[in-house]
Design brief:
The complex is a heterodimer of chains A (288) and B (85). Chain A has two domains: 189 residues, no CATH class; 67 residues, Alpha-Beta Plaits (2-Layer Sandwich), CATH 3.30.70.20. Chain A is built from twelve helices and eleven strands. In chain A, helix 6 packs antiparallel against helix 9. In chain A, the strands form three sheets. Chain A has a seven-stranded mixed sheet with strand order 4-2-3-6-5-1-7. Chain A has a two-stranded antiparallel ribbon with strand order 8-11. A two-stranded antiparallel ribbon of chain A has the order 9-10. Chain B is of the alpha+beta class and 85 residues long. Chain B has a single domain, classed as Alpha-Beta Plaits (2-Layer Sandwich), CATH 3.30.70. Chain B is 16% helix and 21% strand. The radius of gyration of chain B is 13 Å and the shape is globular. Classes of the chains: A alpha+beta (288), B alpha+beta (85). At the A-B interface, helix 4 and helix 7 of A face helix 1 and strand 2 of B.
């Protein structure tokens, strides 16, 4: 079990504990004002200087001897912060975890606080200039987005019932978008995103710079070797380049080190050759 | 790659309130395979109105991931992008 689950899951996964979605945390940390300020400036976060440094050319900064290590340590400390958040201009305590569709449905069914909304993805907007309504928000975040017109979708339905939200999440997941939840800020969960790599601002540091901005899911993908017909459909579905086609055995093979356990490849497989197994069962890759 | 990639966008052409509003174009952002660019509200706008939604610009953010394919230079209708190393 991961550290977050031990601290915040009553008897299981941290994100399936309704306490982390409650308004009590909002009142305790005064998150209404904090989140409003943060989302007004959300796109600026990477160019704003924090401690004399911003994220422009982050890869080069990390390559510098010694300084690179300090930068990485500092940045990870900010996103992993468990103190009451102070500075809305930093991504304090803003850490996420990839989740498979079933867990996403469980969250929407039992944990997510009303009202539930569907908003434009800010990551896709700031990295591609494209407005696509595919982020599901709940609780106080819904009230905040209501005051920020650039996140409100034009044609898609904005307020969702639990059933509609589940339907939408399933639709995105089947399209190949990665389900992920976010502490924003710790320990309050208010985002259920359908991410894409490399557009997602949270996945990018993890995938490209090996910084723990997002945890891998509690699961890892596994193949049912005999069922694989070698159709290669799952290869195109994986956003982390974790699946490839082996021409000698004519079957799909998995690079487990790259697998985030999002489970979207399963939707592409018609032969039940892929399934998710708990990450803890694979000791080599049990680190989230 | 030994030397660092440098991407410059001429903000006298491509910036909110100037000739081109980057939010209406975004061609460089969409053609870039590793998604190096960031679209954001300008920091300079802060003195007058920190949240002026009209003032947006594009910054090349993830420079180390640039593959130097030069597609952003070719696609820019205003020739505002320069890539050097």
């Amino acid at each position: 079990m991961c550290e977050a689950c031990l601290r915040h899951g009553t008897a299981g996964k941290w994100y399936l504990n309704a306490e982390n979605y409650s308004n009590e945390i909002v009142e305790k940390y005064n998150l209404r004002d904090f989140l409003m300020e943060q989302y007004l400036n959300f796109e600026q976060m990477s160019v704003r200087k924090v401690g004399g440094m911003n994220a422009v050319g982050l890869g080069y900064k990390l390559q510098m001897p010694l300084i690179g290590k300090v930068v990485k340590h500092f940045a990870e400390n900010v996103v992993h912060s468990q103190r009451p958040p102070k500075n809305p201009l930093q991504a304090e305590g803003h850490i996420g975890q990839v989740i498979p569709l079933d867990d996403g449905i469980a969250i929407l069914e039992t944990c997510a606080a009303e009202p539930i909304i569907l908003k434009n993805c800010m990551c896709r907007y700031m990295s591609r200039g494209i407005k696509e309504a595919c982020c599901i928000n709940f609780g106080v975040m819904s009230e905040i987005v209501d005051k920020l017109p650039r996140f409100i979708p034009d044609d898609d339905k904005y307020f969702l019932t639990r059933e509609q939200a589940i339907e939408k999440l399933a639709e995105f997941n089947k399209k190949g978008y990665i389900g992920s939840i976010w502490y924003a800020p710790y320990p309050y969960i208010n985002n259920l995103c359908s991410c894409a790599n490399p557009e997602c601002a949270g996945l990018r540091p993890r995938v490209d710079f090996d910084m723990k901005s997002v945890y891998k899911s509690e699961y890892i993908i596994e193949t049912q070797h005999d069922n694989c017909k070698g159709c290669k459909k799952c290869v195109a579905m994986c956003q982390f380049k974790a699946i490839s086609y082996n021409i000698t055995i004519k079957k799909a093979v998995i690079d487990r080190a790259k697998c985030f356990g999002c489970g979207v490849c399963i939707h592409a497989c018609k032969n039940e050759a892929l399934y998710l197994r708990p990450r803890d069962e694979v000791p080599r890759y049990k680190e989230r | 790659m030994a030397s660092k990639t440098k991407i410059t966008i001429d903000h006298s052409i491509c910036s909110g309130g100037k000739k081109v509003d980057p939010r209406a174009c975004c061609k460089c952002m969409q053609i870039c395979e590793p998604a190096v660019f960031l679209l954001h509200q300008t920091l300079d706008a802060e003195e007058e109105n920190p949240y002026d939604p009209q003032l947006w610009s594009i910054t090349p953010l993830w420079l180390s991931l640039c593959t130097r394919c030069m597609k952003c230079v070719d696609v820019c209708p205003e020739r505002a992008v320069r890539v050097s190393w």
